[in-house]
Design brief:
Layout lengths: L19 H9 L16 H10 L5 H4 L1 H6 L28 E11 L10 E14 L3 E13 L5 E12 L1 H7 L12 H12 L19 E7 L4 H11 L5 H10 L5 E3 L4 E3 L8 H4 L12 H15 L4 E9 L9 E13 L6 E12 L4 E10 L27
Antiparallel strand pairs: 1-4, 1-8, 2-3, 3-4, 5-9, 6-7, 8-11, 9-10, 10-11
Helix pairs in contact: 2-7
Length: 402
């Protein structure tokens, strides 16, 4: 018997709509530095390894302190997207009661994140734009900018997130995903997923040389799933601050439109409950519990990092999310080299590879797509991926095979 999505038990409930007044208030915040919850301030070993585990990474550079010390970085590193641990990049001020759906993010990294680095963040809303789509009709797209800096004020990375604001009643009434069934896997499909996990490729300490990479080369595929509520809960715990007990009650009293009211207990709950409970997701038009969206951005980065190895530096990643990843879904991340170029002059010469990436679920639906730029090493020139403010005793070729 199939489990089919419905519009949920609360179809008659009314939530706020997008009004001109609230839209104007959102627009008035463009350029304003926003207050953000401070989740963490230090890239501790536990934070970086915990994040790597939360995205299912198997890369020793991000999991094994001893391995990191042997590389030319001289340190355990954080996954590039581990900066989500310091700000989750959901820049969506104003429009109370309007659902926030992560639509993608453009990341640009300037430095690797070494263990022990202090991290501070600044978030700004850059743009507010009306949109129309099949999911909820009239919507709003908010684009933000989050800057991450180290203890000396040097820029680590800039994230430009895109967040859709969707009226819950309109999305539920349109029922874009009505009739979607919870996927039932065959034994052969599960065997294929297990085999993909067992044969997952990670380059590790084998350098990716610019001369050897060719346009059209595939990136080794990466599988994530079938995703469980525990997977989603672990990721949210890694990147977000959670308010408990009295702090949560104080929050919903100040922001009553910011909470989900459970019909069973007639008490408030976080809207993040939609990551765990189908009936909460159905309140804003999703059929089942779902991922955060940023989780798939992290999976796509994981695919690139598996392929690029220890001696490369992911400089740029832009991911657009097309559909949700629901509880029980499996995501296959694949990529292809689309370009290569050599820029700059010694000693700051760059050897770049560009890639296109897709995330496809077990139904064959593309749920995300993206592009990446990776700085790699060269056999021809003594160079490393150019990162800023290297320490005085930095040895760029420590551990690099010659």
């Amino acid at each position: 018997m199939s489990v089919t999505a419905t519009s949920g038990p609360q179809a008659a409930r009314r939530y706020p709509e997008i009004t001109g007044e609230e839209l104007a208030r959102a627009e008035s915040l463009v350029g304003v530095v926003l207050r953000r919850p401070v989740t963490r301030t230090i890239a501790s070993t536990d934070t970086l390894i915990g994040y790597a585990r939360a995205i299912g990474s198997r890369i020793p550079l991000y999991l094994d302190v001893a391995h990191g010390l042997r590389t030319y970085w001289g340190s355990l590193l954080g996954h590039p997207t581990s900066l989500y641990c310091f700000d989750d990049t959901v820049v969506a001020p104003a429009l109370p009661g309007i659902q926030s759906i992560y639509a993608g993010c453009h990341w640009r990294w300037e430095q690797p994140l070494r263990v022990g680095t202090p991290v501070s963040t600044t978030a700004v809303l850059e743009n507010v734009e009306r949109k129309t789509g099949s999911f909820a009709g009239d919507m709003v797209l908010q684009t933000g900018r989050v800057e991450y800096r180290d203890g000396d004020g040097r820029l680590l990375a800039t994230a430009r997130p895109r967040v859709l604001r969707t009226p819950r009643d309109a999305a539920r009434a349109r029922g874009k995903y009505l009739g979607t069934e919870m996927y039932r896997y065959s034994a052969a499909e599960l065997d294929g997923i297990i085999d993909a996990y067992q044969t997952e490729e990670s380059r590790g300490d084998r350098p990716l040389y610019w001369e050897e990479a060719q346009v059209g080369d595939p990136l080794p595929a990466l599988v994530k799933g079938p995703v469980t509520t525990e997977d989603m809960g672990m990721f949210v715990g890694a990147i977000r601050q959670t308010l408990f007990f009295g702090d949560f009650l104080d929050h919903w009293r100040r922001h009553p439109a910011d909470v989900y009211w459970s019909p069973d207990t007639r008490s408030p709950d976080w809207w993040d409950a939609s990551l765990l409970r189908d009936e909460v997701a159905q309140e804003f038009g999703f059929p089942f519990a779902h991922d955060t969206g940023s989780q798939r951005v992290a999976w796509i980065e994981n695919c690139v990092s598996n392929w690029a190895g220890d001696f490369s530096f992911l400089h740029d990643l832009d991911v657009t999310l097309h559909r949700p990843c629901f509880r029980g879904d499996t995501t296959w991340v694949r990529g292809e080299v689309t370009g290569k170029r050599r820029t700059g002059h010694p000693p700051r010469e760059r050897f770049e590879l560009t890639c296109s990436l897709t995330a496809v679920n077990q139904r064959g639906e593309t749920t995300a797509s993206g592009q990446a730029v990776v700085h790699v090493v060269s056999r021809e020139v003594d160079t490393i991926p150019p990162v800023l403010q290297l320490p005085d005793d930095y040895d760029p070729f420590r551990g690099l095979p010659r």
